[in-house]
Amino acid sequence: MNVKRLFLGLIMLVGLAEVDAAGYDVGNVSASISLKVPGNDAVCYGLSLQKLPGVDNGYQMLAANKLPVKIVQTVVENGNKERITVTLTATEDVYFSYGEQIKTSYRHDDCLFYMPGFWYRRNLRSPQQAPSFHTSDSWLVREDRLSTPLTAIFDEKSKKSMSVIRIDKFGDEALTTHKEGEVILSGKTSIGYTGFENVSGEAVLSFGFPYKEMPKTYIRKLTLAPPVEAFQFLRKGESMSITWEISEREATDFSECIQRTWEYSYDTNKPQPVNTPYTPEKMKEVMTNFFVESYVGDTPTHYYSGVELRTATCDNTDVAEVGFVGRTLLNAFNALEYGEQNGRADLVSNANSVFDTYQANGFSKGGFFNEVVHYKRNSVEAVHSIRRQSEGVYAILHYLNYERSKGRKHLDWEKKVRVMLDIFLRLQNQDGSFPRKFRDDFSIVDKSGGSTPSATLPLILGYKYFKDKRYLASAKKTVDYLEKELISKADYFSSTLDANCEDKEASLYAASAAYYLALVTKGAEQEHYAALAKKATYFALSWYYTWDVPFAQGQMLGDLGLKTRGWGNVSVENNHIDVFVFEFADVLNWLSKRYDEKRFADFAQVISTSMRQLLPLKGHLCGIAKVGYYPEVVQHTNWDYGKNGKGFYNDIFAPGWTVASLWELFSPGRAEHYLLK
Questions:
Q1: How far apart are CA 143 and CA 151, in angstroms?
Q2: Residue 317: CATH number of its domain
Q3: N or C end: fewer C-beta atoms under 10 angstroms in the chain?
Q4: Strand-strand pairing, 160-166 and 217-220
Q5: pLDDT tens for residues 220-234?
């Protein structure tokens, strides 16, 4: 369906105006405006279109009643895109909420839906307590929830996709006293809404300004709240314009739809590197304070306290965690390598003590890492996860490889790692997947295969280190599973351990897993793995912001001047941004060279520069009590983890993984150095 015909077919919600333009495809687009008098319920007015004489593609939008606001719309065609600008001019003081709907002609039941960094397919991996088709088949959300302020609908039958993206300067945000119902904003906002709706069985793109959220708003983890509709004040004589762009594209499947839409989003927003005063070297220098102050050396396993800390104090806790949010062993390797390179004997000594005590006291009877130990509570988490186990083995193999390069051997560690890798072979399912969670006796707690790619990395590192082809064969089986169940189905889920939903980390780990296999294979086999890495990469990229979310004055992140471009949303359940990147920039740079795709390398630079912004320094602590303890739960939209809300952090955070992630970002080429040297 031609987009131009859609806009030329603008009609009102109630009644039909006389429009002097033969050939208009009447019935595809509707518009309305709601006006609110403080203390009264808002009243919604359907709008019709009337051609403006002497103005190309210009229309006045009229209601059956005279309104205290004049509304003019222009439509400009550019190939397969139509840019629509709505200008509102108040003839009296007015509080308004404006919206449009575009019919796609697609059957709703034939469609998959995409709102970047928030909605994939039908969000059926997500529980009923989070936004998903389990709750409703129609959703409108505020634009700052999304990594690009865009909604796309993909029709699996016709292989066509239609999207709407907001095209504006996003400089303003306003505080509100309420988060549900009809809300009058305290000032100006730039944030509108976007989404999709089922209208009599037809898929419809919906968008408008200012924001609204329906049928529910998502205020914190697994907490849906009543809908909200915001009203912007426009003073008599003032005007404002809002612009959207509608585009169509063909795609063979949902994966290609994501790829083409991400490319379009990137080309439209053109995110640029963020100017910060911090070089990678400076970032590392400052973050070493985390290695110093978080070190705990009076427990059976020494560790870096990076879990369950309070932002207000950053005092050490009793939790020692191998992987996931603690990343103790990877931090130990980073501290050791940096300490020896820079003459920091304190870092070297502490790191070696972490490795030595974990080798002696860090394992279960079954040969697994004790993933999470609560020393004051005298408890060890009984349930293991393939992700934490894998991240632990990954760190130890980097440590052993480094030590070997220095002429130092650790036979006891090598023996334990061999035992663990052999356990991996036993734990692996016939289809190549790994259960997400299990016990020491190999009984399965969570059979979901979404975390499988986390095991691929240590298996390939183990193959290279021990020259054992069994581990390579196992790694290939994991990617066979990923290709069949995740990548080919465009269904990336349940990699993060504190949620059951669509998430960034599943696609990021899948891309990294295929990248690792591409590094150790050749010819057609390498090309196959490279292609899989590329396909998964577009999904991972879709979680990263291509625009800068506005904040209100008084919201700390805005006052600090945070630019959100380059930061990644986390998951459907956990709707905040963070610095989870680890080796993903290496994947992007490698794919950029292999496929001559400049966007990948350019966006890797955006990510690298943007993630330096919140470095806590003396006199510039960015809301964190200690230097170098990089923040984690960065709350950028109307959502919180339990405390503080937009523009602030949750009161509890886990800098163990944030420091480890940024350290790997600023240590480029690790995998290639390890596997190709």
A1: 10
A2: 1.50.10.10
A3: C
A4: unpaired
A5: 999 999 999 999 999
Average pLDDT, stretch 469-474? 98
Residue 543 is classified by DSSP as T
Sign, CA dihedral 619-623-626-630, equals negative
Q: Tell me, yes or no, whether 588 lies in a domain.
A: yes
Helices (H), 311-446: 328-341, 345-361, 386-405, 411-427
Which is it for the CA torsion 550, 556, 561, 567, positive or negative? negative
Could you tell me if 251 and 103 lie in one domain? yes
**CA-angle at 273, arms to 267 and 274, nearest 5°:** 130
Q: Are 327 and 250 part of one and the same domain?
A: no
Q: Specify whether 501 is located in the same domain as 554.
A: yes
- Beta carbons within 8 Å of 269's beta carbon, 6+ residues apart: 148, 546, 547, 565
| Last residue in a domain, options 269, 293, 319 | 269
Decide: 144 and 550 in contact? Cβ < 8 Å. Answer: yes
For the chain, what is the mean pLDDT? 95
Residue 101: both structure tokens together = 């709907």
> Has residue 208 got a pLDDT over 70?
yes
Would residue 274 count as lying in a domain? no
- Nearest in space to 652 (alpha carbons), one of 274, 317, 224: 317
User: Please, is 178 exposed, middle or buried when counting C-beta atoms within 10 Å of its C-beta (0-12, 13-18, 19+)?
Assistant: exposed
Give the domain CATH number at 215. Answer: 2.70.98
Quote the radius of gyration of the chain (alpha carbons, Å). 26
384: buried, middle or exposed (CB in 10 Å: 19+, 13-18, 0-12)? buried
- Residues 131-155: what's their mean pLDDT? 98
Q: What is the DSSP code string of 196-213? A: EEEETTEEEEEEEES-EE
> What's the pTM value of the predicted model, to 2 decimals?
0.95
Q: Which domain holds residue 175?
A: 3-269
Task: Answer yes or no: do 221 and 309 share one domain.
Answer: no
Q: Is the same domain home to 314 and 221?
A: no
What is the rounded distance in angstroms from the CA atom of residue 198 to the CA atom of residue 192? 20
158-190 pLDDT per residue, tens: 999 999 999 999 999 999 999 999 999 999 999
Residue 28 confidence (pLDDT) above 80: yes
pLDDT at 614: 98
Two tokens, residue 548: 């800068």
Helix (H, G, I), strand (E, B) or coil at 360: helix
Q: Please, what's the largest Cα pairwise distance for the chain?
A: 86
CB count in 10 Å sphere of residue 255: 17
Domain boundary among 269, 292, 320: 269
Average pLDDT over residues 506-515: 97
Q: Please report the pLDDT score of residue 496 as a whole number.
A: 80
**What are the C-alpha distances in Å from 61 to residues 95, 240, 243, 355?**
17, 15, 15, 70
The per-residue pLDDT for 521 is 98
User: Number of structural domains, the chain?
Assistant: 2
Whether residue 360 is found in the same domain as residue 212: no
CA atoms within 13 A on the CB side of 279: 3
Q: Please say whether the beta carbons of 451 and 385 come within 8 A.
A: yes
Phi, psi of 94 (to 5 degrees): -150, 145
In this structure, the answer to whether residues 100 and 179 fall within a common structural domain is: yes
Examine residue 204 and state whether it is found in any structural domain, yes or no. Answer: yes
Please state, for a pLDDT cut of 90, what percent of the chain lies above it.
Answer: 92
Q: Are residues 120 and 220 in the same domain?
A: yes
What is the per-residue pLDDT for 55?
82
| Cβ neighbours around 506 below 10 Å, total | 29
